[in-house]
């Protein structure tokens, strides 16, 4: 199978017997090559020397006095944030275990970019061997913010960053950017909607994130989102589940749900507590899933044998911010086991 999400840096990792990712110095060199960590033109010699030293040995200990020697206090703080993140990740046997520990602990102070990169790496490992392009595109939602649109019976998810980039130039290049800056109405952005499960055409464009996914009822994308979540839970938590899409929750014994984003969590919580929810808010629910565990012995007694409902929603601006980490605390498991 053609490789996909090469920009994630997954090929720079080693793997254990379960296929989980082991960070290597080359992976940290990829982090250090990010524009956010490259010393700017005005950087002092001490910062340039620090960056060069870390490229040679990305896992070296950096003493506080070395950071204090940097001329720019903000730069010193940025390096401290990166080194703290590196050290937190390296205390765990795998990237999957680090991802779990971060989200079960405290991610305050960890740049969203680093969390996004780590989530993409973990998701890429979970999708290893998948040969269905719809599932791979659905999994992009785990680490890439989306925008939703209803168009001619389709319920489309499109990558927000890609949409913004295309809207800025409107396919007019520099002239389009000038028009946008002058306040001219943006030209409608067109994206290809994924229509073929063949992974090779998808893989060729995977790092561009420029396919839209239709998750409307009965469309392949609706089912693919469940398949992607199944793979993710099996890889990260070792939990075998089956997930099928649903249109509504009509269950008098509704006992458990997990919102896959902030908006869906709020709506589902209000419904579960019997609060009145406006049609406008209800319409923001884009996808519902029914999760069932293969192994019931680790499920909380009140949820054992009962379905767990999953919900994904857009906000008032039609943005979709999926948080797969919600599954860590949200699933009704007695003793969730971290990947190791």
What do you see in this structure?
- The protein starts with 13 loop residues before the first strand and ends in a 10-residue tail after the last helix.
- Helix 6 (112-126) packs across helix 11, helix 7 (133-139) packs parallel to helix 10 (199-205) and helix 7 (133-139) crosses helix 11 (220-236).
- The protein has 14 helices and eleven strands.
- A hairpin with a 5-residue loop joins strand 1 and strand 2.
- It has helices at residues 25-32, 45-56, 64-68, 73-90, 95-104, 112-126, 133-139, 160-169, 174-181, 199-205, 220-236, 262-272, 279-282, 326-330, and strands spanning 14-15, 21-22, 146-151, 154-159, 192-193, 211-214, 241-246, 257-259, 285-293, 308-313, 319-320.
- By secondary structure, the chain is α+β, with helices and mostly antiparallel strands.
- The strands form three sheets. Strands 5-6-4-3-11 form a five-stranded mixed beta sheet.
User: Residue-averaged pLDDT, rounded?
Assistant: 91
Proportion of residues in β-strands: 5-15%
Pairing-aware structural class of the strands and helices? Answer: alpha+beta
Biggest beta sheet attributes: 5 strands, mixed
Number of helices: 14
The tally of beta strands, per DSSP, is 11
Distance from first to last alpha carbon = 27 Å
Poorly predicted segments: 175-180
**Strand order in space, largest sheet:** 5-6-4-3-11
Radius of gyration: 22 Å
Order of helices and strands: EEHHHHHHHEEHHEHEHEEHHEEEH
Helix content: 40-55%
Assign an overall shape.
globular
Strand-helix topology:
Blueprint lengths: L13 E2 L5 E2 L2 H8 L12 H12 L7 H5 L4 H18 L4 H10 L7 H15 L6 H7 L6 E6 L2 E6 H10 L4 H8 L10 E2 L5 H7 L5 E4 L5 H17 L4 E6 L10 E3 L2 H11 L6 H4 L2 E9 L14 E6 L5 E2 L5 H5 L10
Parallel strand pairs: 5-6, 8-10
Antiparallel strand pairs: 1-2, 3-4, 3-11, 4-6, 7-9, 9-10
């Amino acid at each position: 199978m053609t490789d996909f999400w090469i920009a994630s840096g997954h090929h720079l990792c080693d793997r254990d017997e379960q296929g989980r990712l082991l960070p290597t110095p080359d992976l940290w060199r990829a982090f250090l090559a990010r524009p956010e960590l490259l010393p700017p033109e005005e950087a002092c010699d001490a910062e340039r020397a620090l960056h060069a030293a870390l490229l040679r040995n990305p896992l070296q200990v950096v003493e506080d006095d070395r950071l204090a020697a940097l001329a720019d206090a903000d730069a010193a703080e940025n390096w401290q944030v990166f080194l703290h993140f590196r050290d937190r990740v390296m205390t765990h046997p795998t990237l999957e275990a680090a991802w779990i520990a971060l989200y079960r602990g405290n991610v305050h102070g960890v740049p969203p970019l680093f969390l996004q990169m780590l989530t993409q790496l973990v998701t890429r490992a979970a999708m290893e061997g998948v040969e269905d392009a719809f599932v791979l595109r659905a999994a992009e939602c785990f680490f890439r913010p989306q925008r939703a649109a209803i168009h001619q019976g389709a319920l489309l998810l499109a990558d927000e960053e890609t949409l913004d980039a295309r809207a800025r130039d409107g396919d007019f290049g520099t002239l389009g950017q000038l028009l946008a800056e002058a306040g001219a109405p943006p030209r409608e952005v067109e994206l290809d909607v994924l229509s073929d499960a063949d992974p090779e055409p998808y893989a060729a464009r995977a790092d561009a994130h420029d396919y839209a996914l239709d998750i409307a009822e009965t469309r392949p994308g609706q089912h693919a989102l469940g398949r992607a979540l199944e793979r993710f839970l099996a890889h990260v938590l070792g939990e075998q589940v089956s997930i099928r899409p649903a249109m509504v929750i009509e269950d008098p014994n509704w006992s458990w749900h997990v919102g896959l984003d902030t908006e869906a969590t709020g709506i589902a919580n209000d419904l579960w507590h019997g609060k009145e929810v406006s049609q406008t808010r209800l319409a923001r629910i884009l996808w519902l899933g029914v999760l069932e565990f293969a192994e019931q012995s680790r499920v909380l007694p009140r949820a054992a044998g009962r379905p767990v409902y999953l919900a994904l929603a857009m906000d008032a601006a039609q943005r979709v911010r999926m948080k797969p980490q919600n599954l860590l605390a949200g699933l009704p498991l007695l003793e969730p086991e971290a990947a190791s």
